[in-house]
Design brief:
Elements lengths: L3 H4 L18 H31 L6 H25 L9 H34 L4 H4 L2 H22 L1 H5 L12 E3 L2 H40 L5 H39 L3 E3 L5 H20 L1 H11 L15
Antiparallel strand pairs: 1-2
Helix pairs in contact: 2-3, 2-10, 2-11, 3-4, 3-6, 3-10, 4-6, 4-8, 4-9, 6-8, 8-9, 9-10
């Protein structure tokens, strides 16, 4: 019969070098497992609706929606990453040192791409509100696709630079078997902080501060002239209101993202080593954000509610459904 000490080890056969398990009551294990599994399923399902909607319906192929599609793709993969957190319920990593590094690389690519996409969304809102006459010619579908592709490529290259030491010798920062830890040198930490946290957050705040000021002035101007406008003017005002509503929605998405992602980055760059923890509040907020984005679309975008209805009723399988009018 195994001793209590052996049972609490990640690898009982390697008692001298194995990490200890995190011991919880059985009910706690079941609660964590059920919660993470439910969140994972919800994130994957909701973001899959966004991906199918924007990809399938041609009317939704707009520059702004392409940015939302990029964000949905990253959130979609976050749902699958929760599976690794489920494996870490007892605090032990059983997939080996190389897979530990791969997990972190995928995690950082997804996270950094989300941050860069948020910067693009902020730029999109800035141009739409502050320079609306140049928006149709400046922000085109082709340019947005190129920018999104460059963001993902840039994130991937930077992440491999950050993780170069860990790729060379996987597991070098582990203190025992069953641990999943990565470490950064000063240059790698600087790149991570500057390009994926400090820089993007600063740009987002500056752009949205400017957008807020201009949007408030436009809203006041519309209210002061709404009683004296002609029919043509009414159409223009309605267009302005539509633009302001869209910016408000994207502003909510960005604000929720910043609130959710900041603790995650603070913990990630706080020290030289970062240990995975399924119970970490920062990780919970990060995963919660991936679930909240589609819910925000449901609340603010009628086209998303209509597209979900068409998807659930399998109307998208009919010929010509991609040309349906859902806006």
């Amino acid at each position: 019969m195994q001793s209590i000490e052996e049972v609490e080890l990640c690898f009982p056969q390697l008692a001298n070098s194995s990490c200890r398990k995190i011991v919880h009551p059985h009910s706690t294990y079941m609660l964590i497992y059920f919660s993470l599994s439910s969140v994972s399923l919800l994130i994957v399902t909701l973001n899959l609706f966004v991906i199918i909607s924007i990809s399938h319906f041609k009317q939704l192929h707009t520059p702004t929606n392409i940015l939302l599609l990029s964000l949905a793709v990253s959130d979609f993969f976050v749902g699958f990453l929760i599976v690794f957190q489920i494996l870490l319920i007892d605090g032990c990593w059983y997939l080996g040192d190389f897979m530990c590094v791969v997990y972190y690389i995928i995690d950082y690519v997804i996270t950094s791409s989300s941050v860069e996409t948020m910067v693009l969304i902020s730029v999109d809102c800035y141009v739409a509100i502050c320079d609306p006459f140049q928006y149709p010619t400046t922000v085109t579908q082709k340019r947005v696709c190129v920018c999104v592709s460059l963001c993902w490529m840039f994130s991937t290259v930077c992440v491999f630079i950050v993780f170069k030491e860990n790729l060379g010798t996987p597991g070098r920062f582990n203190s025992c078997l069953g641990e999943c830890v990565v470490g950064f040198d000063e240059i790698a930490g600087l790149i991570d902080s500057l390009f994926f946290f400090i820089g993007p957050v600063t740009i987002i705040i500056i752009l949205y501060a400017r957008v807020f000021v201009v949007a408030v002035s436009q809203a006041r101007a519309m209210r002061s002239h709404v009683a004296a406008i002609s029919l043509q003017g009414s159409v223009k005002v309605n267009i302005k209101r539509s633009e302001l509503k869209s910016v408000r929605t994207l502003g909510v998405v960005v604000a929720v993202f910043l609130i959710s992602i900041c603790p995650y980055f603070f913990i990630s760059v706080a020290g030289e080593q970062t240990q995975l923890s399924a119970s970490s509040f920062a990780f919970f907020l990060f995963y919660l954000n991936s679930c909240l984005n589609p819910l925000i679309y449901v609340l603010f975008y009628p086209w998303f509610r209509k597209s979900i209805q068409l998807i659930l009723t399998l109307q998208i399988l009919k010929p010509g459904s991609s040309k349906a009018n859902i806006v």
